[in-house]
Amino acid sequence: MADDAPKTEATTGDGPVVVKKYANRRLYNTQSSSYVTLDDLCHMVKEGVEFVVKDAKTGEDITRSVLTQIIVEEESKGGQNLLPIGFLRRLIGFYGDNLQGMVAQYLDFALRGFTQNQDQMRETVRKAFGGMFPFGDLDEMSRRNLALYEQTMRMFTPFAGGNNNKSDASGDGSGKGDQALDELKAEMARMQRRLDELSKKD
Fold it and tell me: Which domain does 142 fall in, by range?
């Protein structure tokens, strides 16, 4: 079909790579003038290559849905599960909730912080297992990150401090918003305990 025929676009090297998705679900990288797969896009993400995916017919930006497809593909591979079932259930529970926008910002903020520290964490763990020094640096870093996460959570719960009535952040009087936030905080606390246990091992 004519709609499926890729049209070569001149690229200047400025801005993200444009990937077109055609009606036959094939993906076309307009910079390399070649068809790509979801695995190829996954590698581009890991290599820090910025790209946007657009519907070839309408021009609509469908980057979010394609990135979600990549996550689904990765989660379906044996032994590569990254998202715990409990986390997925809680995340789904926030769809349609008044806190949905805040949760999205919180997750983005938390993951950005973790990403910025990942090289330092990898190096610390590598040296610790090599017997050069204990997990002190990793322990301190984990405590610092958790404190930062808790501070962020307080930003997202304006009624949490100094209010004995504990207003329901979801706004529906059910208390579900507060409960969900408490569960997220508990999950962070469990992660902290695991890191603490790890730091005590030589």
Answer: 86-199
* DSSP annotation of 169: T
Give percent helix, percent strand, percent coil of the chain, each to the nearest 5.
55, 10, 35
Q: Which residues contact 189 (CB under 8 A, 6 or more apart)?
A: 146
Q: Which residues of 174-201 are buried (b: 16+ CB within 10 A; e: fewer)?
A: eebbbebbeebeeebeeebeebeeebee
Could you count the other beta carbons within 10 Å of the beta carbon of residue 29? 19
pTM, full prediction = 0.57
End position of a domain, from candidates 76, 106, 137: 76
Shared domain check, 159 and 94: yes
pLDDT per position as a tens digit, 157-185: 544 444 444 444 444 555 555 666 666 66
154 in a structural domain: yes
Q: Encode pLDDT of 16-59 as tens digits.
A: 999 999 999 999 999 999 999 999 999 999 999 999 999 999 99
Joined tokens for residue 104 = 């999205």
Note whether 152 and 110 are within 8 A (CB).
yes
User: Does any domain span residue 81?
Assistant: no
Q: Cα torsion for 70, 74, 77, 83, to the nearest 10°?
A: -130
For residue 112, count CB atoms less than 10 angstroms from its CB and return exposed for 0-12, middle for 13-18, buried for 19 or more: exposed
Give the span between the Cα atoms of 101 and 85, in whole angstroms.
Answer: 21
